[in-house]
Amino acid sequence: MSETTQLAPELQARIDRLVAQATPAPMLSRAEKAALEEEIRTLLKARNAVLVAHYYVDDALQRLAEETGGIVADSLEMASFGARSEAEVLVVCGVRFMGETAKLLSPEKTVLMPALEATCSLDVSCPPEAFAEFIARHPDHTVVVYANTSAEVKALADWTVTSGNALHIARHLAERGEKILWAPDRHLGRWIERETGVEMTLWPGHCIVHDEFMAFELEKLRQRYPDAKVLVHPESPENVVEMADVVGSTKVLINAVQTLPDRRFIVATDYGIFYKMQQLAPEKELIAAPTGSRERQCQSCAHCPWMAMNSLVNLRDALRNMAPEVHVDPAVRERAVRPIQRMLAFSREAGLIR
Ligand code: 13P
Ligand code: SF4
Question: How many domains does the chain have?
């Protein structure tokens, strides 16, 4: 059996504080949006910049990224696109670990983030000092970390994975007889164990968005819509994942909506993904999976408070001011880039990315 302990109370308190401090995007009129979009298009050209956006950010940012030759993608494709791009400036609309990964892979490029302070509860749950102690207690293990971690934590790892390649990499390591130490998402870790039969030693982190999906309410919804297929991101709790017809990264869930013959889907991931799903399959019906915790009140309500910090206003400002810029200490970079490059090389060879 894999082991997890409880997340330290001070880390949980820090996550709660950061959620409370996350500032949502401002409300804008249609005219204000149009003016900002026009200015952003002009600035992107002037700066030789591209947008690298995640599926969870605001629809307007996803649309702009697509229209202007950038990309909207899962975290695996965001990393590989940024590294391949010929633009001088990458503007990462997402959360901090995504900007750091882009900078680690392209140190010669300027990497801007509209919301540099946008973090991720998984990243916060795994501070490098505590993680180094965890590794020291398991010296004979291969250290595999989720992309949702800081550059300092990646610098301690042998491999980085995303939910788009985690199963493949865990199987590969198990075939080589390696013991795996996994951080930080315990639900994703359990899913990998269940799917591969590989036992891992787990760090007790969680995503505040996916952790709130509730199996009991999901079952009621499934009874109400018996024809619906249930799509679940593997950061969700084990009893929710067990109810899924399809489990996978954001890209896998989007492909499922597009390619499965079913007309109705219950979706257990951040609702920012609905923009892309609806765009690719407008005839399909999407139903948000139910959330709740803390006396059944949801905290994130299926939308990442840090992804939501990215807006047309701070995107325009980032391009105008060429700030805030992502920096990574070169000494950290040297070690942190290796597990990411290993992951990308493996994923290319496995045909998971270009
Ligand atoms: P994906 O790699 O599936 O895009 O997931 C990233 C993430 O942060 C999900 O919460
Ligand atoms: Fe992190 Fe969860 Fe937000 Fe993804 S949705 S960035 S895992 S907090």
Answer: 3
| C-beta 332 within 6 A of ligand 2 | no
Check if 306 has its Cβ closer than 6 Å to any atom of ligand 2: yes
CA-nearest residue for atom 7, ligand 2, is 207
* CA of 119 relative to ligand 2 center, distance in Å: 8
Q: What is the pLDDT along the chain (354 residues), one digit of tens a residue?
A: 456 678 999 999 999 999 999 998 999 999 999 999 999 999 999 999 999 999 999 999 999 999 999 999 999 999 999 999 999 999 999 999 999 999 999 999 999 999 999 999 999 999 999 999 999 999 999 999 999 999 999 999 999 999 999 999 999 999 999 999 999 999 999 999 999 999 999 999 999 999 999 999 999 999 999 999 999 999 999 999 999 999 999 999 999 999 999 999 999 999 999 999 999 999 999 999 999 876 778 888 999 999 999 999 999 999 999 999 999 999 999 999 999 999 999 999 999 988
Cβ of 193 closer than 6 Å to ligand 1, yes or no, is: no
Among the atoms of ligand 1, which is closest to the Cα of residue 249? 3
Helices 330-349 and 75-84 cross at an angle (nearest 10°) of 110
Residue 134 is assigned to a structural domain of this protein: yes
C-alpha of residue 1 to centroid of ligand 1, in Å: 26
Q: Find the domain containing 104 and state its range.
A: 15-120+307-334
**Residues 115 and 127 occupy one common structural domain:** no
Q: Are residues 19 and 59 in the same domain?
A: yes
Q: Determine the atom of ligand 1 nearest the C-alpha atom of 269.
A: 10
Select from 288, 315, 345 the last residue of a domain.
Answer: 288
Residue with token string 């709660």: 16
Q: Which residues contact 339 (CB under 8 A, 6 or more apart)?
A: 145, 154, 157, 158, 159, 160
pTM score: 0.96
Is 236 touching ligand 1 by the criterion CB < 6 Å?
no
CB 304 less than 6 A from any atom of ligand 2: yes
Kindly list the strands in the beta sheet with 159-161, ordered across the sheet, starting from the edge strand earlier in the chain: 159-161, 141-146, 179-183, 200-202
